[in-house]
């Protein structure tokens, strides 16, 4: 795909990532979220936050307290987001399995993102399964971004071949 994409058509109850803002917006989320690794649920909550940014499926942030004891292990390294600041990482742990650097957090996020301080986002592709309101999510394409795709979010999504300039 080259150039600017044509947004997919939306139906009732669906939203387009092309209607999301840039810079991104943070909004509270009230609904069920689960994360499974090694056949076990390592996180479950009925609330969290979504970061919505043009061309990206939502990134869900889960309260750290929603993770089972021992499921979050601090990992080395950090990265920087132009919108949220410095991210630090977690390995996600369950049984004999470790998903390295599969979770991240902003300990001191920039202005406007303070509610997600200490909350954890998860790379869906690195765990067995993530759900939102009972629906299994698909991970954002490309292996770099952490958005979660559900049936009510339409693209095309940044991360597919040719989307670098979006």
From TrEMBL:
InterPro entries reported for this sequence: DUF427, DUF427_sf
Region (Disordered): 1-21
Domain DUF427: residue ranges: 33-124
Record Gene3D superfamilies: Domain of unknown function (DUF427)
Protein's name according to its UniProt entry: DUF427 domain-containing protein
Organism: Mycolicibacterium hodleri
